[in-house]
């Protein structure tokens, strides 16, 4: 079993790959912070609470179920 020779990566390509990886991590952290701020603003939403109006609508769901 012979191994395929690895192709050397140019220094410019290596810098580009490192920079792209750093950019992806920066964006991931930025998105995480934004989403956390939004979640903090929204407050606790899980589990969702059903309103009385929603419960009234659900009782009619079975009338439309004709099995097919």
**Distance between the ends:** 59 Å
Mean pLDDT score, rounded?
81
SSE pattern, N- to C-terminal: HH
Number of strands: 0
User: Which word captures the global form?
Assistant: elongated
Helix coverage percent: 55-70%
- Rounded to an integer in angstroms, the radius of gyration calculated over CA atoms is 27 Å
Report the uncertain regions.
none
What fraction of the residues are assigned to beta strands by DSSP?
Answer: under 5%
What's the number of domains? Answer: 1
The number of helices is 2
Largest sheet, described in full? Answer: none
Determine the oligomeric state from the structure: single chain
Given helix and strand content, the structural type is: mainly alpha
Topology:
Layout: H1 11-42, H2 52-59
Descriptive notes:
The protein has 68 residues and is mainly alpha-helical. The chain has one domain. The termini are far apart.
Supply the key terms.
mainly alpha
In summary, what is this structure?
The chain has 68 residues and is mostly helical. The protein has helices at 11-42, 52-59.
């Amino acid at each position: 079993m012979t191994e395929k020779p690895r192709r050397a990566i140019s220094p410019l390509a290596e810098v580009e790959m490192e920079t792209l990886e750093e950019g992806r991590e920066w964006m991931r952290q930025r998105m995480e912070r934004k989403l956390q701020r939004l979640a903090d603003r929204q407050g606790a939403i899980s589990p969702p609470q059903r309103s009385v109006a929603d419960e009234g609508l659900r009782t009619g769901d079975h009338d439309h179920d004709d099995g097919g």
